[in-house]
Amino acid sequence: MSVESKKSVLSAIVGNTIVMFAKFGVFLSTGSSAMLAEGIHSLADVMNQSLLYIGVIKSENHPDKEHSSGYGRERFIWSLISAVGIFFLGCGVTIYHGVESLLHPHEGHSVNMSVSIGVLIFALVVEGYVLYVAYAGLKKQAGTKPFFDFVQNEADPSSVAVLMEDAAACIGVIIAIISILLTHFTHQHYWDAIGSILIGILLGFVAFWLISRNRDLLIGKSIPDEEIERLKEILREKKFLGKIDHIRTEVIGADQYDIQVEIEFDERILSQTMDLNLKEKYESIQCYEDFEKYSLELAVQSMEKLTRTIDELEQEIQKELPNTKFIDIEPN
Length: 332
Hints:
By secondary structure, the chain is mainly alpha-helical. The chain has eleven helices and three strands.
């Protein structure tokens, strides 16, 4: 997933940087509020996607003494910062400028329609390609799972942020084109201001959605329901296991799960799987010292059997649920 995430984020940074300069260039020559909103939108995207890339890189750091479970949550932190940036820089500034322009209209520079629309169409093509790269990467990760459910509940937040931001960018470009055309043909400046406000509202929606998702991940989100059900199926298949007292799961990074299970073991059934020749041992006991020695051996064998059984069970769970990075099974 890291490779796909890096590809999506880097494509977004490069594409949006090119588009940002083109939009601001047109704004400087036209004074269009909608074009300024689009320029701010692209600037916000470049800055936020740079933060996402930092998160992807930092999340790959190996565990150390201070962070024994690794740095997987770095993605969530930087994705949250990115989403807050979209809200304040993208949504806040864009809406403010649109309202200001609506309340205090002013004459812009002479608008070159062919240049304005041409740049916006160019932006739509570039951002559409970046959107496709993000979509293709997430689609590959989703596999046979329903795409929108995967994006909402399981996908890497960095890739999701790129998908949402560039989807909003494409819609924003269409809004800007419509508002500029309406301003040109009706000679009413408020259409341009309304376009800016609509783009800001769109960014606000994206920001709130991303903030909510990353908040859930930072607080501690359980692994997907189907994964929990598969975990329970594995445990129920084992005859030596009884009542499941507690299952705690948490997403600790992109494709990284932490699973803790408290479960009752049926010692009688488990002991029947041990290779014990009790009759032979019984006949070899001649005194108390022999009995004590064998009792200690039997206790050690029992503990080794339990430990080995837990290790094998954990390995099976990690094989069936490959995203499991940490697992702890505690017998009751």
